[in-house]
Give the backbone structure.
Amino acid sequence: MPPRLPIRAATVTRSNRVPDGYKASGVDVAEADAGLRNIIARVTATWPKTGLGAVQLPIGYFANVVDIGGMGLALCTDGVGSKAIVAQMMGKYDTVGIDCVAMNVNDLLCVGARPVSMVDYIAIDRADAAVLDGIAIGLAEGARQAGVSISGGEISQLPDMVTGFDLVGTAVGTVALDRVLVGQDILPGDSVIGIASNGIHSNGFTLARRAFFQRAGVSAEHVFAEIGHPLGEELLRPTYIYVPEILEILRQVASVKALIHITGDGFLNLPRVAAEIGFIIDDLPPPPPIFNLIEEHAGVEGAEMYEVYNMGIGFCVILSEKDADAALAILKRHGRDARVIGYAVADRTKSVYLPQQRLIGTGKRFRPD
């Protein structure tokens, strides 16, 4: 069996500064991290040391991999969070299923896995056939885009616990044990390709809802001139699914070192890789207007926006500089807007440098440069 890959577990110390606006909106990341530390200690005690079911990675990466008799089974779980509330506000339920699929299959890609199948869990205050059908429409469309099956699921009616609904998925994929990617081979000078997002995707909705519906006092039907259509429509834009193009890159470009899903924590996801590497991200496109509107109406600093949101880049590919053009050509054929946004540098602090924004990021915090 190949040796387990040397990545560090997720940082769970309480010393990391929590984004102020996010905490004020009701999301206490520091307290969640404290709880996570205890969960990790308890669940890792269940891990087999070797053989069938042996876990290949520490907890903390985008997905994990277990040994199923010489082959790797990749697993992850994620949900749509409070994007579900916006779906309720708009009475539109046929896209959040796409988000649920996307959040999972994009994470599976990050360990080099081919997504295969998903199951979903819907917690709802009361069964509503039309709502459930809308969710299922999105799940089926997301599965079609990702090339996976929805092989089962669960619906729980919880009127005493839930207002509205919550939607979560668990996905599995396959990857050869000697092909698991965690960024262990990244070298200084390797290129970082950024692939455009489709808006805010499925992270930071608590802060966004507070900014627009509480602080600004607008409705989901409000039309900001900067976006030109109802706010609710903008917020419900489904998370892009990057599976077809990334699988083609993995097949055709040998030097792929890491794949990074830019979700919560924004570009601070880059240092999750195993190598002692930092990143200079010096050619970002302007953020889409929705991010400027959130910053304005939430009353937060630009640094916090880069700690919470993807800011227009939904996925990154890290690879040898010589192969960047080949990867970009594949992305163009798939209709993706992508560019080289930066490069890796030797850096034991594993920092992220955003010179255009004059920010330096370490851990979970960006600070002025």
